[in-house]
Write a structure and sequence with these properties.
Blueprint: H1 10-25, E1 33-38, H2 43-55, E2 63-71, H3 76-88, E3 93-97, H4 111-128, E4 133-135, H5 140-154, E5 163-166, E6 171-174, H6 182-192, H7 208-222, H8 226-233
Parallel strand pairs: 1-2, 1-4, 2-3, 4-6
Antiparallel strand pairs: 5-6
Length: 243
């Protein structure tokens, strides 16, 4: 029996087009890829998971997906809802529990420490499950914010790459939402009624990223395309005008 091709409609159609363009532009996928999708449970990662899974019905490139959630033990009610969501929608998944407070008091935890531990666990899971790629839910806003964070606070020009090969080619990180804006994801997530966690990380609101996000929001009132312009600027570097 031939498989049924179900192309996306409505909001998903436009998001899927942007994801498809990013995949093509950065050659993110290859035939037979086994992809570990990092699912924090937030709107970004759940949107990524759904778009990648739905694209399997019409994508000429065939790949496998495994959802991976890193459980820090902070929200058992949400964890139950996320498990239920995976099972109702027939997503292959793995949940790995870690203790990010094991060697540090909770009051000393910052975004870097939390992110580092989650990322380390994802690499270990990818190796264990024979996945050659890890898909992360970073979107256009995340990438642009990181550019400004590194420029303003670290004095360097760098960001999150839509595709990044690590460990001598053993693992490749891909960010298929690189062309998608956060506001588009918010709208789509509401429509999909994803099982989102009840609150935001308490560290976020005092972080430098939160400051940059607010800064960009203000600039966007006068320069509507500012995020796209900053993103594109990394591809338009005129070296002859640099010191």
């Amino acid at each position: 029996m031939e498989s049924v091709i179900r192309k996306p409609k409505g909001k998903e159609y436009y998001l899927s087009k942007k994801v498809g363009k990013a995949i093509m532009d950065y050659q993110m996928l290859s035939e037979g890829d086994r992809i570990l999708v990092a699912v924090s449970g937030g709107k970004d990662s759940l949107t990524l998971l759904k778009l990648l899974r739905d694209r399997l019905s019409f994508s000429p490139v065939k790949y496998e997906l495994i959802s991976a959630h890193i459980d820090t033990g902070k929200d058992p009610v949400f964890l139950h809802s996320l498990k239920d969501y995976f099972e109702r929608n027939n997503y292959p998944y793995v949940i790995e529990k870690i203790d990010i407070f094991e060697n540090s008091a909770e009051s000393n935890i910052d975004c870097f420490w939390c992110s580092w531990n989650r990322r380390k666990t994802l690499f270990q899971l990818a190796d264990k499950l024979n996945c050659n790629k890890i898909a992360l839910g970073h979107h256009l806003d995340d990438i642009v914010q990181t550019i400004l964070l590194n420029l303003f606070f670290n004095g360097e020009i760098s960001s999150m790459s839509p595709k990044q090969t690590l460990f001598e080619g053993k693992i490749t990180i891909i960010r298929p939402l690189a062309y998608v804006e956060e506001k588009e994801i918010i709208s789509f997530a509401k429509e999909q009624n994803f099982p989102l966690p009840g609150g935001c990380c308490s560290v976020f609101f005092s972080s430098k990223r939160s400051y940059i996000k607010g800064f960009l929001k203000e600039l966007e009132k006068e320069i509507p395309d500012i995020k796209k312009n900053i993103f594109r600027a990394l591809k338009r570097i005129k070296k002859e005008y640099l010191p």
